Amino acid sequence: MALSLSFAPAAQAQSGDLDRAVAALRAIETMQATFVQTDRNGQRANGTLTLKRPGRIRFQYAPGIPMLIVSDGSALTMIDYQVRQVQRWPIKNSPLGALLDPARDVKKYGTLLGSGDPNWVLVEVRDRSHPEYGVMTFRFQRKAGAPGGLELAGWTTLDSQNKRTAVALSGQRYGIAVPDSMFKYNDPRRPTRR
After folding, report:
1. Residues with Cβ < 8 Å from 152, sequence gap 6 or more?
2. What is the domain extent for residue 118?
3. If DSSP codes are grouped into helix, strand and coil, which group holds residue 44?
4. Cis omega before residue 54 (within 30°)?
5. What is the rounded CA–CA span in Å between residue 165 and residue 53?
6. Could you tell me if residue 65 is inside a domain?
7. Which residues are 85's β-sheet partners?
8. Hey, how many other C-beta atoms are within 10 angstroms of the C-beta on 101?
9. What Å distances lie between residue 111 and 44, 60, 126, 172, 191, CA to CA?
10. I want to staple 76 with a disulfide (CB 3.0 to 4.6 A). Which of 17, 51, 71, 117 is the partner?
């Protein structure tokens, strides 16, 4: 099903949808889902997302994609195994901070957007005093079995360099056991022992 996204404020939206979206995010303790990531050039990558609140996430890309994105609760780390490069930044300084940073008040920075479909709720999160953090727009689908009655179906991020990335989730499973070791990674910059 194609989803038409309208990014104008939604006067017709139910007034409690922002509260419900915030409650749905806070209700997720652990989640695993399949993701498809699409960049601004239309390039797609897929894999498995694992989330453990507060602050931990892992984007395990499919075999053949030598990338890993992981947050240990304080920093978001992008590892490119092909070029042996590691980049880290505090989660609060990333668009994903809206999802991962337990100190980020989604309701304080969130605005309900119109979706054109009553089964979808869109919430844009931006800190206007820190435009360098970027913008994140969450997409929720109404679903009775999901935390808070809204299933996190994906998001779109726009970083401070205007790079747009969309993530679509499917096959969400909640409340699964996730070990903390899931949020560690092998640093490709370290020499291997022979």
Report:
1. 24, 25, 28, 31, 138, 139, 140, 146, 169, 172
2. 17-171
3. strand
4. yes
5. 22
6. yes
7. 80
8. 22
9. 28, 30, 8, 25, 47
10. 71
Owner of token pair 């979706």: 115
CATH number of the domain at 139, please: 2.50.20.10
**Tokens found for residue 1:** 């099903």
In a domain, 180, yes or no: no
Residue 189 lies in a domain: no
pTM for the structure as a whole = 0.83
d(CA 63, CA 13): 41
Structure token digits, residue 39:
């960049």
- The 10s digit of each residue's pLDDT in 89-132 is 888 777 677 777 666 667 777 889 988 889 999 999 887 887 87
Q: Has residue 33 been placed in a domain?
A: yes
How many folded domains does the chain comprise?
1
Which H/E stretch holds residue 108?
A: helix 106-109
